[in-house]
């Protein structure tokens, strides 16, 4: 269907990884945890160890507390076991998926507090960089923050917003919001800027780059500015947006976006490296 055609053009290989033949109508599959090889668990451990060395003093406290509690350093986690703890904490469940799923399906899951987690793990040669989300990106990057009640609430609202955006032809704007927060967001802390974006937290090089390199912009989160700003999918970000706290993310994205989408459709998108006159640019520590 058009989903596979659209994603096939997006992904380099011209086809989707993952086995979609057993997926149900919500693209959910069995995780088949027993099917992972010792080599795959070893690769997970090496990915985990790489990130565990990088995140102290850089990831936000919510992430650091949650990843410790999750206790998944020894191998690829069993999603159902995590769901038991997660459901008690914030009412979210993990659902195993073969890989990228159609936008509508993705939003439908989020709107019902189900987070889709890819079942396959990258190959050895993708240790440093991978195009599509794999189980390490989805689980290590995204799952820890789902234990935070405010963030969990926001992500469900984001899912509901996605279903509305599809009807309003606002998906491109909403994807930028997702990109610059859930995937590449920074957050203020008393000790300085910290990371909450999954795309950064699951990557080897961007953890250091996003906080320390003088090159990229780091500007305060402002919804319309984020939704106007283009992003890079195959290099480090040229701009990071900084929230004060998760309450701000929830509050600022709570209103209906219909009028904002109409306003944005009448404006030019901004290049990823834009810094507008008067905009505050956080200095690197
Ligand atoms: N599917 N499994 C999966 N994971 C994602 O993060 C994902 C997706 N489908 C669509 C999508 N993300 C993005 O296009 C959203 O912004 C809609
Ligand atoms: Fe992601």
UniProtKB/TrEMBL annotation:
<keyword id="KW-0560">Oxidoreductase</keyword>
<dbReference type="GO" id="GO:0004505">
    <property type="term" value="F:phenylalanine 4-monooxygenase activity"/>
</dbReference>
<comment type="similarity">
    <text>Belongs to the biopterin-dependent aromatic amino acid hydroxylase family.</text>
</comment>
<dbReference type="InterPro" id="IPR036329">
    <property type="entry name" value="Aro-AA_hydroxylase_C_sf"/>
</dbReference>
<protein>
    <recommendedName>
        <fullName>Phenylalanine-4-hydroxylase</fullName>
        <ecNumber>1.14.16.1</ecNumber>
    </recommendedName>
</protein>
<dbReference type="InterPro" id="IPR005960">
    <property type="entry name" value="Phe-4-hydroxylase_mono"/>
</dbReference>
<dbReference type="Pfam" id="PF00351">
    <property type="entry name" value="Biopterin_H"/>
</dbReference>
<keyword id="KW-0408">Iron</keyword>
<dbReference type="InterPro" id="IPR019774">
    <property type="entry name" value="Aromatic-AA_hydroxylase_C"/>
</dbReference>
<comment type="pathway">
    <text>Amino-acid degradation; L-phenylalanine degradation; acetoacetate and fumarate from L-phenylalanine: step 1/6.</text>
</comment>
<keyword id="KW-0479">Metal-binding</keyword>
<dbReference type="InterPro" id="IPR018301">
    <property type="entry name" value="ArAA_hydroxylase_Fe/CU_BS"/>
</dbReference>
<dbReference type="InterPro" id="IPR036951">
    <property type="entry name" value="ArAA_hydroxylase_sf"/>
</dbReference>
<feature type="domain" description="Biopterin-dependent aromatic amino acid hydroxylase family profile">
    <location>
        <begin position="1"/>
        <end position="285"/>
    </location>
</feature>
<keyword id="KW-0503">Monooxygenase</keyword>
<keyword id="KW-0585">Phenylalanine catabolism</keyword>
<dbReference type="InterPro" id="IPR001273">
    <property type="entry name" value="ArAA_hydroxylase"/>
</dbReference>
